[in-house]
Amino acid sequence: MALVKTPPTLVPSPAALDDAEVERIRNDFPVLDQTIHGHPLVYLDSGATSQHPRSVLEAEQDFYEQRNAAVHRGAHELAVRATDAYEDARVAVARFVGAAPDEIVWTSNATEAINLVAYALGNASAWAERGRGGAGMRELAVGPGDEIVVTELEHHANLIPWQELAFRTGATLRWIPVDDAGRLRMEEAEKIIGPRTRVVAFAHASNVLGSVAPVEELVGLARRVGALTVLDACQSAPHMPLDLAGLGVDFAAFSGHKMLAPTGIGALYGRRELLDALPPVLVGGSMITTVTMERAEYLPAPQRFEAGTQRISQAVAFAAAVDYLNHVGMDRIHAWEAGLGARLAEGIAAIPGVRLLGPAPGAEWHGSGRIGLAAFNVEGVHAHDVGQYLDSAGIAVRVGHHCAQPLHRRLGLTASTRASAYLYTTTAEVEAFLGALAEVRAYFGVAR
């Protein structure tokens, strides 16, 4: 017997989100209905991992109860149903980010997706060196004398893979610096991105500062010299309408667990002709056409990058997650979170002894604003102590370097505290957080 799916309690509307509708949205998220240390849970760690509506939880359970089988392998009915669900999920997620279905490769997360591109480019170098793949492979190869460009803002997942690619191939890693406020120094970018640049990798939105990158300018600089662009869309795909083809990037990575889906599922977007040209990274079953004892021939993308048994139930649940986000409306979600982000930034900046990281409210790049995320440093109190104090009030935030040690070092810090909102965050929760934050220094006896 199939599960009876729980429909979302909200009603689609072109009007802006308000607290009344957000309260209805919250009813779809079971985990939010609890107390922590005697206080109602205020979950402000969605930048790390989002929560799941019932429709997503039920979609994964329904798959296991009704359609569980290996995909692309069997002729029996369950296998057909599983394959249809798996590929329908690809269609849904592709449509959500403005891509074609064969431009979406399933991965475990965005980290794997970025590593996939970096290792595939390294494999292209090896193939080209041995005369495999023709002229197209030589165009993808990275080697001595070539340059890979990142930014000083990057999450480690969009930095270390490029460090390693440079090490393996003899290329040089360069980076676009930030100013004292954490804004990219675009005048330096114009000097750094040059004829030797083969890859430009950057975050769409900073996971520390919440600021949105000047994507059009960076893509333009890369295109001018024929470099590939790799977009870390982990903090943009969940929070704003996304059209990857329209942005003009060559590759992009995003994770399901930051956008209402389960852990263990992410996606790589790649322009079709590039994915088909790149060598595979993981090899084995399900991604080949012909195998002899001497060699193998590989399927076109996306299957050439999906060796072995895949994340089938997670992909199905990912599709349910984007259905939910579409039901609410990404324009409405983005507008709601922009307001929350502005209030977070303004409120944090107004508390004595608390330093907001990144551009001052209203001083972001080209008026691009910020997502609903803000990191800060409390003078005289370690970030972990700040997090524990807030937790005692039922408020969940992130502490540490947020996998961005170089950026923290540039800002003169080793760690910070981060509050991040989502579509289920109310203005009352933001105010509760700001009220608790204002008490931290006095609690630890460092207020003047």
Automatic annotation (TrEMBL):
KW Aminoacyl-tRNA synthetase (keyword) present: no
GO molecular function: cysteine desulfurase activity; pyridoxal phosphate binding; transaminase activity
Cofactor (UniProt): pyridoxal 5'-phosphate
Enzyme class (EC, first level): transferase
Keyword set, alphabetical order: Aminotransferase, Pyridoxal phosphate, Transferase
Domain Aminotransferase class V: 42-433
Reaction equations catalysed: (sulfur carrier)-H + L-cysteine = (sulfur carrier)-SH + L-alanine
EC assignment: 2.8.1.7
GO BP term, pick one: cysteine metabolic process
Family of the protein in this entry: Belongs to the class-V pyridoxal-phosphate-dependent aminotransferase family. Csd subfamily.
Its job: Catalyzes the removal of elemental sulfur and selenium atoms from L-cysteine, L-cystine, L-selenocysteine, and L-selenocystine to produce L-alanine.
UniProt name for this protein: Cysteine desulfurase
Source species of the chain: Sinomonas puerhi
